Amino acid sequence: MSKIFEEIYEYVQGIEIIDTHEHLPAFEDIRDKNTDILKEYLTHYFNCDLISAGLSASDFARVINPDLPVVERWDIVEPYWNVSRHTGYARALDISVKGLYGLDRICRETIEELNGKFLDSLKPGHFKKVLKDRSKIRVSLLHDIPKENEKIVFDSNLKCDQTFFRNVYPIDGLIFPQTGDEIMRIEEQAGFRVCGFGDYLEAAESLLDNALKHGAVALKSALAYQRPLLYERFTMSEAEHEFNELFKYKHMGNYLPQVFPLGKKFQDCMMHFILRLAGKRNLTVQFHTGIQEGNGNMLKNSDPALLSNLFLEYPDVDFDIFHMGYPFQDVVSVLAKNFPNVFIDMAWAHIVSPSASVQALAGWIDSVPVNKISAFGGDYLFIDGVYGHQALAREHVSRALSMKVDEGLMDVERANEISEMLFYKNPYRIFKLEKSL
Ligand SMILES: [Zn+2]
After folding, report:
1. How is the chain split among helix, strand and coil, in percent rounded to 5?
2. What is the rounded distance in angstroms from the CA atom of residue 200 to the CA atom of residue 239?
3. Nearest-angstrom CA–CA distance, 386 and 381
4. Distance from the first to the final alpha carbon of the chain
5. CA of 138 to the centre of ligand 1 (A)
6. pLDDT per residue over 126-175, tens digit each?
7. 25 alpha carbon to ligand 1 midpoint, in Å?
8. What pTM, to 2 d.p., does this model score?
């Protein structure tokens, strides 16, 4: 490792971080306690690498069953773990166990001892240890994903532990409601009946304002999991026509599944409606783009270039483009270069592809103003992953910047200054956190 890298890396390790994106439990005491290291660490991400490598669904179900002995489950997963061990997801977990529990990596020799130490960490205080003491995270923007059977998607009174988090309000439930239950929850939240499209728009506005009143600092959309990111212009009457389809199902009893995805015209109109509200309130909206978590989806739905008309039509909305658009990071480069209201967010990126993260950042420095990039969003559902991810992010940012110093583009002092913008000053400004921190 070069001396320049070492110098920058040392500085970067001391920087406080604004973490743009997490899905952690909103309070430490609601952590899942019926768990162990394999169940928790395979909640998401790395389990997808294992399944991609050939682990069957039935074997995976056994691997995450905490009632079976941990070594027996390790034996099932080991061949798949070993071939996936070099991915960013696996690296983050190995870094986490080393940094948090002092054991070199997750393997047959360590799994039992690790599990014991992990179970000890379920005691209160672990969130502070990971987020504050070890990861130096000032605050994480939280997208609270409701657990199964806990339908709080539309809850705009979302609460979270303000020591660690500020909430982000997910708008997708208002744009893409899919069941009768969901519409009823919107009614409940708004406090009045939705008897027509006008009522629905009023309810959407009041839910959004309620979320802001309860401390939400930004909005978020992840609809690239479900549909293309192209939101076209339709008339309100076209949207209303589709909305009225809902009432055809009103007579069906609760015991029947009331599933009725609303049409594209309705969804597109609602996105435009919400962005108009966001513009008037000078809000930042986080958009999922690029790779979709899981084992298969329609990648082209998530191309960030599809959002271009929204960038043009809503100049008062700041668009925070998630996951560096991977694998569309060059597209994101052009978007952030051209549009004053488009920002690059590396949430999730450092574990999706370590090498692409370093290369992309080095490339953006050549083409995009450095005040438009946020370097870190952990994007984890479980706490330990955040530590490994931020360690990788600090390393990758140091690598990209040391490349620029090696090229003679800047000195180490300037590289350090930029690293502080990427990890702290930029997200602080992009999310207007001076109002809430
Ligand atoms: Zn996420």
Report:
1. 55, 10, 35
2. 11
3. 9
4. 37
5. 19
6. 999 999 999 999 999 999 876 554 444 556 778 899 999 999 999 999 99
7. 13
8. 0.96
